[in-house]
């Protein structure tokens, strides 16, 4: 498994999208209710002012470099990987995996109207996917 590092005292996996998916799939099989975060510069800077936010990020099962600023910072520290792990790209990869492996996806957040719209859009790309919220 890829080693984590810290940037401004927040743990991060210095990886690209395929490795992030692999890391999550490894943890998924244990079904421990784990969570992952996608960090951009704004979120990292907010965690410097908010200890609760920093605790939440560091209590996650892993954090990925969502923004290019974070990816570039990690690369400047010598980590070698391509691109970043955009949350949207990650979600689409996981939906593809869920559809192929007959797994249910649970959407959380925002309003029921937004979740219904997101579910409908995902079902266009993944017609056999099972989605709940």
What is the compact description of this entry?
The chain has 133 residues and is an alpha/beta fold. It is built from six helices and six strands, in the order ββαβααβααβαβ. It has helices at residues 17-28, 41-49, 51-59, 68-76, 87-100, 112-125; strands spanning 5-7, 10-12, 36-39, 62-65, 104-106, 130-132.
Topology of this structure?
Blueprint lengths: L4 E3 L2 E3 L4 H12 L7 E4 L1 H9 L1 H9 L2 E4 L2 H9 L10 H14 L3 E3 L5 H14 L4 E3 L1
Parallel strand pairs: 3-4, 5-6
Antiparallel strand pairs: 1-2
Helix pairs in contact: 2-3
Q: What best-fitting shape do the alpha-carbon axes yield?
A: globular
Spatial order of strands in the largest sheet: 1-2
Q: How would you spell out the order of helices and strands?
A: EEHEHHEHHEHE
Q: What low-confidence regions span 5 or more consecutive residues with pLDDT below 50?
A: none
Average pLDDT confidence is 94
Distance between the termini: 31 Å
Q: Major sheet: size, sense and barrel closure?
A: 2 strands, antiparallel
Strand content: 15-25%
- Structural class computed from helices and strand pairing: alpha/beta
What does this structure look like?
With 133 residues, the protein is α/β, with parallel strands linked by helices. It has 6 helices and 6 strands; from the N terminus they run ββαβααβααβαβ. The chain has helices at residues 17-28, 41-49, 51-59, 68-76, 87-100, 112-125, and strands spanning 5-7, 10-12, 36-39, 62-65, 104-106, 130-132. It has a two-stranded antiparallel sheet. Strands 3-4 form a two-stranded parallel ribbon. The longest helix is centred in the C-terminal third of the chain and has 14 residues, at 87-100. It is globular.
């Amino acid at each position: 498994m890829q080693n984590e590092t810290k940037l401004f005292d927040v743990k991060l996996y210095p990886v690209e999208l395929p490795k992030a998916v692999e890391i999550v799939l490894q943890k998924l099989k244990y079904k421990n209710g784990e969570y992952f975060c996608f960090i951009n510069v704004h979120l990292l800077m907010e965690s410097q002012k908010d200890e609760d936010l920093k605790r939440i990020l560091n209590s996650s099962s892993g954090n990925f470099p969502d923004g290019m600023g974070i990816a570039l910072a990690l690369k400047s520290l010598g980590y070698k990987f391509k691109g970043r792990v955009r949350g949207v790209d990650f979600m689409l990869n996981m939906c593809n995996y869920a559809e192929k492996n007959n797994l249910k996806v649970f959407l959380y957040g925002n309003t029921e109207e937004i979740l219904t719209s997101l579910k409908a859009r995902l079902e266009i790309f993944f017609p056999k996917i099972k989605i709940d919220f």
